[in-house]
Amino acid sequence: MQGKHLGKQTVRFNFPPSIRAYASIVGKKEGEGPLKDYFDEIHEDTKFGQSSWEKAESQMQTLALQKALTKAALSPAQIHMVFAGDLLNQCIGTSFAIRGSEIPFYGLYGACSTMAESLSLAAMAVEGGFADYAAAMTSSHFASAERQYRFPLEYGGQRTPTAQWTVTGSGAIILEQNNQPPYIRGVTTGKIMDLGITDANNMGAAMAPAFVDTVISHFQDSGLSPSDYDLIISGDLGTVGLELASDLFRREGYALGDKLKDCGTMIFDLEQQDVHAGGSGCGCSAVVLCGYLLEKLKTKKYRNILFCGTGALLSPVSTQQGESVPAVCHAVAISGESGCM
Amino acid sequence: MQGKHLGKQTVRFNFPPSIRAYASIVGKKEGEGPLKDYFDEIHEDTKFGQSSWEKAESQMQTLALQKALTKAALSPAQIHMVFAGDLLNQCIGTSFAIRGSEIPFYGLYGACSTMAESLSLAAMAVEGGFADYAAAMTSSHFASAERQYRFPLEYGGQRTPTAQWTVTGSGAIILEQNNQPPYIRGVTTGKIMDLGITDANNMGAAMAPAFVDTVISHFQDSGLSPSDYDLIISGDLGTVGLELASDLFRREGYALGDKLKDCGTMIFDLEQQDVHAGGSGCGCSAVVLCGYLLEKLKTKKYRNILFCGTGALLSPVSTQQGESVPAVCHAVAISGESGCM
Predict the structure, then answer these.
(1) Whole-number pLDDT of residue A340
(2) Is A276 helix (H, G, I), strand (E, B) or coil?
(3) Rounded to a whole number, what is the distance in Å from the CA of A155 to chain B's nearest CA?
(4) What would the pLDDT profile of B274-294 be if each residue is shown by its tens digit?
(5) Residue B184 and residue B336 in contact, taking contact as beta carbons nearer than 8 Å
(6) Minimal Cα–Cα distance from A299 to chain B, Å?
(7) CB contact under 8 A, A192 and B95
(8) Has this prediction a pTM greater than 0.95?
(9) Which of B5, B10, B12, B106 to mutate against chain A (most A CBs within 10 Å)?
(10) Is ipTM over 0.95?
């Protein structure tokens, strides 16, 4: 057996795939936030030269993939598989971006967990010998998400304090087997958790239990502990969900302290940028990973991180039909050095 | 390397995963069609006891997974990963079905290619050693699809001659490594093809080029030829798309003759059941595979088949914005005997 299955949910790679290149593309607001120096491209035009918000989102993925390929010094023809998805109905942000690339494509839907999901599957594809190079990618766009999930922007609806702000951005990663850090050490696949939250504007609270469950499963399955990581980061719970998660961890006997962070609370200045509980959307954890986090692994500020994508698997239809909000969280162990896990 | 990559798009498994169990659940109309004797359950109540069409679709997946688990003599706790998706916005048919199962879950969006996509990824998970048991599943429901993609049923809109009828059904498969046929010999991952079809009611024509491209790539990558297969089956092109595909194959020098079939033309009686160009929807190829095809592999009517899921990656929004219909096709080589590929 190539990969090694630990417990019910965790895979430890015997030959950890390497991140060959990564790229992040963001919009104007994200380019004014605290992580602005880490993104590859900041676009002032949030339509990215396109005629609709949906096409703008596709264009971001096109740019992110192109940038990652350029940084990897690879052509699209060398990529054996791309795993990607987004928040739009039928994932059209992704399909129309990949259409012209001729790269074999597996479409995913994991809501805001998509960066972690795509990275998990791309890592398995490379370690299993199914792909020499595999790409993982996702995106979100504030304007396309608002009008699909909430209200048309023109309506000017008031946002609740627990609401999160969908990040306009796209991130892409290319994996290979090359024995160089940063490595994907292992992954923990999430189960769907639903504790009955029915407020579609409080997704952080709906996702927190899934995050805590996956992280604890990761520790139990792998035999690792919080001390093996410099950072355990969710994407994206926002302030409300992060506080709830911190509390849930404490109750389960895990004191994570400063190691516990959330992409959604880092990408914006929560005091100045009027984003309420923080950032969200597939693109949020994607660009925080493909901008800030991987850079900090390279420069050794972090040596080992557990990157946890959290997705709320609701739709406007399920909310209208009175359903609660199911959530999932996938964890990816990324290491900037040899050893560990 | 565990799996072996051939050419750009194809994986040949060195240790082909086995299909341990499979199950199919269908609605009333499907239970009146030519394949009725092959389904595990036919439900007269197309609401499956639920209060909405969307919940009915979830219920079908719940039943399909339960049935497959029962036939496999496995508990949900023994399944390491389930790969699944459906046609509904945000794939809620799937999320709400898997919510109660506690099975680690990767959500997919491949439109009507989802059965082939989920089977491909589940096979890689098992052969890579990432899962002892992996499940692949999908569904579609005529009524939930009609109102999301086309018109409310109450509107009574007239259907065009090229339109296909979304199948109400769900199929589930459980894979393991056990050295017993039927085996998954290999998979060919599809690229997105778009030849500019803009008629969202002629998805067969939009998908035919993707089907032909993936099948020819499969032959080129693997060194296999049509003579290595008893059946090359698309899911689902319908009559219009199948005729177009047949023509495209001929032009490329492949005479497939009677080996070329389509799940959408088999599941209904096209003369009697008023389904125009045939069946479609993720559930169509899923129940034809998990009903008829796998049974025929067991009884040796077929020895080797190439099961090709075809998906039209459009959304009502992309159609409204004037976009053409991108399509993808994933091929899975399934064998009822040792040897071959």
Answers:
(1) 47
(2) coil
(3) 19
(4) 999 999 999 999 999 999 999
(5) no
(6) 31
(7) yes
(8) yes
(9) B106
(10) yes
